[in-house]
Structures are given as C-alpha cells and as structure tokens.
Amino acid sequence: MDAILVQFLNGLDKGGAYALIALGLTLVFGTLGVVNFAHGALFMLGSFCAVAFRKLLLLERIELSETELSPWGTALEIRTPYVNEIFGAYGDVLIDWSVPISILVAIPIMLLIGIAMERGLIKHFYKRPHAEQILVTFGLAIVLGEIIKTIFGANPIPQPMPEVLRGTADIGVLFGMAENAVTYPWWRMIYFLFSLSLIGAVFAFLRFTTFGMVVRAGMADREMVGLLGVDIDRRFTIVFGIAAVVAGLAGVMYTPILPPVNTLGMDFLVLSFVVVVVGGMGSLPGAVAAGFLLGILQSFASLPEVKAIIPGIDQVIIYLVAVVILLVRPRGLLGKSGVMEN
Amino acid sequence: MLTLPKKELITFLIFAVVVLSMPVWLIPFGASYPGLLQTFAIFGLFAVGFNILFGLTGYLSFGHAAFLGVGSYTAVWSFKLFTMNPIPAIIFAIIISGVFALLIGFISLRRSGIYFSILTLAFAQMSYNLAYSVLTPVTNGETGLALTMQDPRIIDLAFSERGEALPQVALFGLNMAGYGGFYFAAIILILGYFVAQKIAISPFGMMLKGIKSNQNRMGYTGLNTKPYTLAAFVISGMYAGLAGGLLAVTDPLAGAERMQWTASGEIVLMVVLGGIGTIFGPVLGAWIIKYFANIFSAINENILHNMFSFLPASVQDFLVPLLALFVGEGWELTMGLMFVLVVVFLPGGLMEGYRRIAVRISAMSSKETKSVDKPAQTDKQAGGE
Amino acid sequence: MATAKHNTVLHVADVHMRFGGLHALADIDLEIEEGKIHAIIGPNGAGKSTLLNVCVGRLAPTSGAVVFDGQVITGMKPHEINQIGVARVFQTPEIFSDLSVMENVMAPAFAKRDGAFRLNFMKNVGQEKEIRQEAEHFIEDVGMTAELETPAGSLSRGDKRRLELAMCLIQHPRLLLLDEPTAGMSRHDTNTTIELLKKIKARGMTKVIIEHDMHVVFSLADKISVLAQGRIIAEGDPETVRNDPEVKKAYLGGAQE
C-alpha cells in the first residue's frame, strides 16, 4: 500500500511537467496547425532562464582585504554579490529563492521568444506540409540547443531549491501509516501544485476571456472565425507566446529536480509528443490527463516488483502505451477523430 | 535486367568514378584519410536507403537509426560467433535489420503523416532504451559490444589457431581497418546507388512516387498501398542495417548511442540538405554533414588566426571570435542553421539549388537567341510564404 | 433483395445512410445498365456525392448493399473495388501533381496490373512499351498530347480534369463514375468534354455521371435519376424526367434555367 502511494506521488511531479509541455504543444497544434519540434527547446530555454537569473544574482565584486590574509598568505579576497550591496541581507533571500523568483523574469522573456519564433519562422510554415514543419522546427531546436551550449557549456548546472523547501513531507502520517513510511520531497509537491495551478490558469484564460473564446472558436473552425472579421493571426501569435511561457515556466520550476542541460529539450520533446498523441492531438484536457497518466505509469513501471515480472518495462512503458493507443484509438484518449489523419 | 537508360547510366558511371577516386580528390579538402572516407561511404549508403522511404513515399521516419544499430550489433555478433570475414557479417546485418524493419514497419505504417513519424520515434526510443538496459546480454549495455579473446569464432578457429591478439576484420587477407575498408564500403555504396536508381525508374518506384504525391488517388486507382509502403520501409531499413554492418566492419564495435533518435534526426538532415527524392542529393548531404562534423569540429581559434593572418590584426580580433562560435564545439550550430535555411529557402535541398542555377544559366544562354523570357519556374514548393 | 437483371452492372440496393440525425440517403434503389450513361441529378445537399462515395467504398452505408456485377462491394476497400472494374473521376481533380502528364496516365495502368503487390524493380518504366503506347493513345484521346512531359500540378483546372479522365480510361473500367465532370469549366471546355464522353460511350463503357449542368445531362444521359433530400423522386429517360411535375417542383423550377 505505501509503496503504491509512493510511486503514485513520484509520478505526480513528472506528470505535471509532461502535462505542461504537452499542453502548449497541443495548443499550438490545435490553433496554428503546426507540429512544433522545437517545443522541447522552449522547456529547456525556460530552465536556462533560471540559470541565467541565478548567475546574475551571484555576480559579485571582489575586493582585496587589507588586513586579513588567506591561508596561502595572499591578501584575502572579499566577495560581495551586487545584490547584497543593493538589498543588503535581503539579497541572500533573493539568492536563496532564485528559482521561484526567476518565474517573474522568465514570463516576459519566454513570451518574447515565443512571439519572435512565431513571427520570424513558424508563420511561414502554416501552409507547408507537416513534414516540412517538423523539419524546420527540428532544425530550430538544434540551433537553440547549440546556442545554449555555446553560452552555458555542455554540463548540467544544478539549481538549488530554497533552503526551507529542501526537506521532505511525511505524507504517510496523514494516512495513518507509520512515520517516514511515505515521504515526499516538498519541492516535488510544490511542482505538482504549481503545474496544477498553471494548467488551471490556462484553462480559465481560454474559458473566461473574450480572447480565449476567440481562440477556442478558432481551434474549432479557423476559417469560420476568420470570416467573422476577427484578426486570428495576431491572436494566434499570442497563443504561441503563451505556449512558450507555459513550457518555459515548467522548465524553470523543474530545475531543482533535474539540472538544466542543453539536451534537455530533445529529451523532453519525444516524451511530450508521446503525451500529446496519447491524449489526442489538439485536445487540451487530453494532454493534461495523458501527462499525469504517463507520469504515474512510468513511476509504477519502475517498481522492482513490476520490473521482476516484465524486465525493462520501465524503459519502454511510455512508448508502449503510445504505440497501443495509436493503433487502437488513433485519435487519442480525448481527441477528436480525424485530426491529421489522411 | 541489369541495365539502366542512357542518362541514368552516365550518372551512375560518374558516381562510381567520383566515389572510387575520393581518396584523391578529397586531399585538397583535408578529408582524405581512411576513417573519414569510410564514414562518407557508409553514411552515403544510409542516406540513399533512407531516401527510398522518405523521398519516394513521403513517409518521414524518425527511427531509422535503430536499424543502423541492429545492423552493427548483428555484424559484431557475426564476427564473434563465426568469422572475421565481412561478407557474412553484412549479409546477417541486412537480414536481421530487414526482419526488424518488417515488424516495426508493419505496425507503424498503419498510421500515416505525423502519427507515423511518432510511431517510428517510439519504436526507436524503445530499442535504444532496451539496448541500454535489459538487452545488455546481447548489446553489452553502455560499454558497447566488442570483440574479446574468448569469442568462439567457430568458422575461423576451425581453420586456424587462436592468435595472441584480437583478430582484425579482413576480407580474404585484406584488412578492413584502413583503405581496404573504404573500398569495400565504397563498392557497396556504388551497388546500393545502382539499386536505388533501378527502384526510382521502375514501375515499383513509380507506384511509390504516386503514393507520395496522392495516396488517396493511388487507392482509387486500384493499388493496395500497404505492401508498397511496407516494402519501401523494409528496403530502407535493410540499407540502414547494411550501413550499420559496415560501421562494424570498419571498426568492430557497436554501441547503443548509434540508435538514439537524434541519430535518426541526423539522417533526416542529410537527406533534406542534399535534396529529398533525388538519388545523389542524399549522398551529397551525408558527405557535407560528415565533413562538417569532422573538419569543422577540429578547427579552433588558433587555426582561425592562421587562416586569417593576412588580415589586419584588428579585423582578425573581431572576426576570429565570431567565427569561432561556428566551428569546433559549435559546428552543430552551423549545421542546425544551415538546415533551417535550407528548409526555409530551398526545400528541395542542394540538388534543387543546383537545378535552379542550371535553369538560370540555360535561360541566360538562350536569351541571346530568343528575346522572350522563359516562363518562371512554377515549383509549388518554391518561396517562403 | 438483389433482383439484378442480366444487363445490370451496378445495383444499389435499399441503401440508407445516416450521419447522426441526418438521413443523407434513404431507401436508395438504383440499377445501372450495361453500356449506358446514367445521370444522377439533384439540388445541392441532395446526397449525390454521398451516394457516389458509397459506390466506391469510401463510405460504408448504414444499411443496404451495393452490388457490382453480381458481387457485393459494400465493405470492400477502394482499391479492391477499383480492381474489379470501377473507376472514379473526382469533383476536385485527384491527380499526381508531382508527376508528369505521361506518368500520371501510366501509373494507373501499372496500378491496375501490379495493384496487389509486385516488387518489380528489375524493369524500367521505359521498357514497358505497351503501357507507354496505350498512355499516349489515351492522352491523345483527351487532347493533351502537347503536354506529355508537363508536371501535372501546373496544368489548368480543365486540363487536370481531362487528365484524370485519361487516368481512368487507361484502366478500361467496366463502370466509370464521374462526379461533376464539367464543374468549373468554360462552355468551350464543357462541349469538348461532352464530345469526349460521347466518343467513349461508343466503346460500350458504362458511366454514372453526377452533374449540375443540365446541358451536359440532357446531351449525354440515357437515363436520369433525380435525387432530392436523400431520396430518388423520379427516374427515367431524359424526356420523362424533363416533364415530370415532381422534378420541376423540386429542382428545375428553382434557380436552374
């Protein structure tokens, strides 16, 4: 029982990341009709927003002490981050909380990146075949990954989570189990809650705003909305920006769980495509449901008991699910039939 | 039966000469050493085969690296179990990868378009993950599969004593590690090129092109498209397996990283860069990308400074760090940019560019006789919008 | 149910087609006679295209069956239906845009021959002299000899339709279904097409034509069925149909003529 609960919990945060990436991917597909292989790169860019922000916070001034000596007999270097000079002791708090705070930085950056990407490149591919969309966005993903590698290097850069959130929560006690039977790191729980609220925000935005209404109408029938005289293109650009922000924020908050590296985009891309396909191309609730479902399934498949029965299942479960879904229910769990089928 | 129409025959002969003389004409490019030459021949072959699927039928597979990997493993096992002769190794590689392609293709081809791409991607990732984990007894996991002193090699050891050192792959005494390996791979590339040419101009190839152009119409025209696309898939899978086998022939070592989906992406890049649907284009794309990978990645700032030493120091100081971003570690950035530019401006790849230039030149020369302009090229893919 | 007479090529027997609440086809019973041109007319949304799609296997009817030459073809795949002798010209031309006119016409001949599967890459297309000659012949029939090597994608719409006709003719189908073969054509092109269809008719090929253009219908058809709201409301030779009060009310009395 407790083992099952642990696996279930472990699947939640990963599922949250899958769901967030897949949400943007399927949103872009549903509105713009574009298969974006660079979407994983947006997740990666988001995670590097956190890295860059922290680097910025840690910029420091080096003074040579006139009185103290280092153990090597040279003058001791006193390093003071600029934030400390500006904010004093609050600077330490800023550094400690750099990951969550970089969300504020990531939102405008990702929005800009998304809009630039759509206006600069993707827009020219609306009417081109899907194969060419895949190719050009795949190329773009390589370019983005390489740019990040040039700037930040090819090694993962761990990002610490805030001090107070480093422990684990004893979930088991809530269910009347023994102490420490089921523990769950606070940060993972926060990630899960964060993904839920972000998903909620996106849905609320699409449901309750006029903008969202037009977008949903456009997803259902683009030409129709175009006939109504609504400038769909401009709105869809913003949709792309929103998808970029969602993927980026998913990346920012994931950094304490998985250290950012330039290949992160490609790794998550395949998974998130699988999630979108399982959920149903163009279906937002499908993407969310499939994201969590696959996260939890993957978590269960890595149980030693399961692996003993089917060796290697943890390595292939997600892909296996995708293959089965595509063959027996090609529209995915919650997708409309006929989307992108010839 | 083994004939080609005149035009194709000329292309074939030129191609054969170009490939066989690579060790000579690549000298000025600094690329005439056996390791790189072998790579050119092997990935050229891989690209030719990939184009039979993608170029002729339009089905975009993101999983062909898996077949390459299967071919490599099979060949190494052939060395370990039977003999160091490369012929059985590549025959096994073709057969086993063909069987794999049949299984994966049979399932993946039940969907088309992007769903097909994702199915192949899923199968390739499964193969890759399994090669790293449960299949370790077959693949030797992260270390990779290599020859050992304890290998049974039943055929070889029936005729000779076990030596002191690890044996080398040899075709009746011709060592496959150096130029021997290149010529072996080059001859197979030429044969593979010939087969691809035959396919492209055959009724079978015409059916595949029909499927790419309008699968719906092909169905209403009485063609059962399934076995045709599957045949194309299996043939291209066998080419990939053969290429993988050759990789093992030139260097008897097989690792799972060959099967990663980004490796599949690389072959897509090669074919698109060179020119989808043409026969020579994919080979050209493979050569260019492999050349960049080897030569560009070896360039560093010092070399750049030497290259631009004729420029004033201030210009050098500006230019060199800028260019340094695109070479050495950054060569993949160059490749990615090049690829994006090709897809945006030249969807037909370099061969399309060549064709456009040829058309322009012939238009210019005919202008002198005719004052009327040639009608503009009405290529439906031309232009960015 | 199947009381097919000896000379009936296609028998649409009690076909119903429902899409959700919409009754697109109701109780359709249609017999197409060998060697005749049978026109199906009707206002927009009458279910003509749905009927055609049922005949070629693109849609499976909710109930009922389609019998071709004594063989039930409902539930068969489009390529199987084509293989037993049914060819179709689409409303919007379905051709191979990337291939030349010549290749467009040769491909259906190969498809007819190798449809099930044949891995014949030992022979070159150029060596298939018979098919080549036949293709040239049919291209000449539709008057496109000058365009042999033109990529089909760059043809005019009228030419595309004529090309598609040649693609069907080279298969020597027993039954040819044409979905508005002259839609979007100029008067001149329409007349050329009518002449062409008359010429083919002389060869004894059965045809079903769905058409809006009354001029085309009355100059070609041996028999006309009038479809309105998913039902056949009248049937007979052109004269009978022209004078049928029901038809006048439902169709001819409206915007037409």
Structural category of chain B is mainly alpha
- N- to C-terminal separation of chain B? 45 Å
The largest interface is:
A-B, 42 and 47 residues
- Residues in helix, % of chain B: 55-70%
* Mean pLDDT level of chain C: 84
Number of helices of chain B: 17
The main β sheet of chain B shows up as:
2 strands, antiparallel
Number of strands of chain C: 10
Unreliable sequence segments of chain B: 371-385
Radius of gyration of chain B using CA atoms only? 23 Å
The string of secondary-structure elements of chain C, in order, is: EEEHEEHEHHHEHEHEEHH
Tell me which oligomeric state these chains represent: heterotrimer
C-alpha geometry of chain B: globular
Radius of gyration of CA atoms of chain C, rounded to a whole number: 19 Å
Strand order of the largest sheet of chain C: 6-7-8-3-9-10
Descriptive report:
The complex is a heterotrimer of chains A (342), B (385) and C (257). Helix content of chain A is 68%, strand content 7%. With 342 residues, chain A is mainly alpha-helical. Chain A has one domain. In chain A, strands 1-2 form a two-stranded antiparallel sheet. Chain A is globular. The C terminus of chain B is likely disordered. In chain B, the strands form two sheets. Chain B has a two-stranded antiparallel ribbon. In chain B, strands 2-3 form a two-stranded antiparallel ribbon. In chain B, a hairpin with a 2-residue loop joins strand 2 and strand 3. Helices cover 69% and strands 2% of the residues of chain B. The radius of gyration of chain B is 23 Å and the shape is globular. Chain C has 257 residues and is of the alpha/beta class. In chain C, the strands form two sheets. Chain C has a six-stranded mixed sheet with strand order 6-7-8-3-9-10, with helices on both faces. A four-stranded antiparallel sheet of chain C has the order 2-1-4-5, with helices on one face. In chain C, helix 3 runs parallel beside helix 5. The longest helix of chain C is centred in the last third of the chain and has 15 residues. The radius of gyration of chain C is 19 Å and the shape is globular. The termini of chain C are far apart. The N terminus of chain C is likely disordered. Chains in contact: A-B, B-C.
